[in-house]
Model the fold of this input.
Amino acid sequence: MARFVDVRTMVRWAADRGVEDIITGMIGYLEEDFRRWESFDKTPRVASHTSFGVIELMPTSTEEEYGFKYVNGHPSNPVRGYQTVTAFGMLADVHNGYPTFLAEMTVLTALRTAATSAMVAKQLARKDSQTLALIGCGTQSEFQALAFRAALGIDSLRIWDTDPAAMEKLVRNLEPLGFTIEITGSAAECVDGADVVTTCTADKANATILTADLIRPGVHLNAIGGDCPGKTELDAEILNLGEVFVEFPPQTRIEGEIQQMPEDFPVTEFWKVLNGTAAGRTSPEQITIFDSVGFAVEDFSALRYVRDAVDGTDFFQEIDLIASPENPKDLFSLVSAAAPLAV
Amino acid sequence: MARFVDVRTMVRWAADRGVEDIITGMIGYLEEDFRRWESFDKTPRVASHTSFGVIELMPTSTEEEYGFKYVNGHPSNPVRGYQTVTAFGMLADVHNGYPTFLAEMTVLTALRTAATSAMVAKQLARKDSQTLALIGCGTQSEFQALAFRAALGIDSLRIWDTDPAAMEKLVRNLEPLGFTIEITGSAAECVDGADVVTTCTADKANATILTADLIRPGVHLNAIGGDCPGKTELDAEILNLGEVFVEFPPQTRIEGEIQQMPEDFPVTEFWKVLNGTAAGRTSPEQITIFDSVGFAVEDFSALRYVRDAVDGTDFFQEIDLIASPENPKDLFSLVSAAAPLAV
Done:
């Protein structure tokens, strides 16, 4: 039997444990996996594009454990009442290839994206950071806020979205949780005075959410909305203002903000910062930029974390995914009408 | 909610409906999909190899529907009491990317492989074929026998396996179902007088199960065990005796029997035979060879068939795989501790 966490159970678990507590735990698993980055089989994601959107499979593996995520991206979904992104994922035992754990990953991806942002900011943002600017108040925004509070103690937010209802939703969700929130009137006003800036907008185009003149010295810029070919958020000039950190260069050069830059544009792989083999922030004035696109290893860490965290609780069910005839060569015995029906 | 057929339910359904009836229905879906072969997005499979075996994702898509299969291949599994191959698969709606149907595919792959063999033999074997030689009496063997009886009316079997217990198992499973079965003492003896020959052995090596002198005029050879790089069953000389038919040439040239042949070795794509744009068997004396490796479209057909066949029955359950917040931008509302716990 494999274990399975469905949407209802993931939601119940997250509400019970608390998002900040989960993100804190998940950062530990992410750091563990980023530190052993070189031991992962980093297959490129497999995308199936149609006129409606994209469906992707994101596999990765160590010598012990295999994982993949199914995820779609359909920008036109919200106007039709659907989620832009839905996902589920799986872990398997590399030794015998048997699936061990399945989980919904729509909620889990929101948690892991925020946890990844916070893991990176823990290394790159100024230690005295107090204010987070959130540009884009969609699905990811509240998770970002909670992740930065959990990891860096930031509880002061400046927010901006072209949709006032999205900003009101964020205030409604986060003010009861103790955040100080300032609604601003533009992206320029939003980033003014912020120590950390998260851009997370959904427009599938080469947008210019921020221009170089708005980025002050010492800022850590967490750019997560530019995450597929043709979808960027930053004026290219911003990428020349500081050091750019990425997850996996071959993927980021196609999907990230740096798709706007030459092939040999210099970047630092974040796992090296964590390992101490590359420099992170080198001065309080430096501008650091995390060009985040989301990578399979992060989903792997998130799945591992949930699997371990729900062990010993009732936050999972068992599902019957692996046929087990008594004699491995006699699969037919299971479906023979003469066979007992229980397996 | 997505529908889910677990192992227990797949087995119950197969026993209730009967394997031959299922295979007959599945052949119809396979033929429908092979006829529209050109409308499929035929992504190559994504394999993760380790010293223990391989784990693969096999996606394919039309403009309406997306499907993929997770499948492992671990040759050393049976000696440790595990199945060599386990699998599960999924269908999704291309319009919004939402998963619609999940199923175990260990049993289902056995059914679809046999159904594919039978679909091809219906076109290529002599109409007066009466005897099937089965070389290799493992997991797939009983399904092969039932598929050939369902599609061609063949009920006389000659069998061979290096493991006597495997042959006894086949007799035990199939004799009660009305087959006439002759246990033979070698591959040479097994194919003697057979009209159709299925080779389905598990040895992961370049084996020579059959040599060219054993292949009589008029035989249809269904070669399914040679299905990954370095794993073949036939003496290369056999491939020069007749016409070779394949599923998807770019994959078969890497994985099939023709991996032994030059890059430009001539083959016929089976879907063209079905469409009438390529010749099938051209004379009673011709030797026809199906170099089968298994392709994602076949899994897609099998999943579609099961989904439709169990509709209106109790042979599925519903699972909660897609987060559906009332406001698509407000995923956080689901996990807020203040939110009602039911979703």
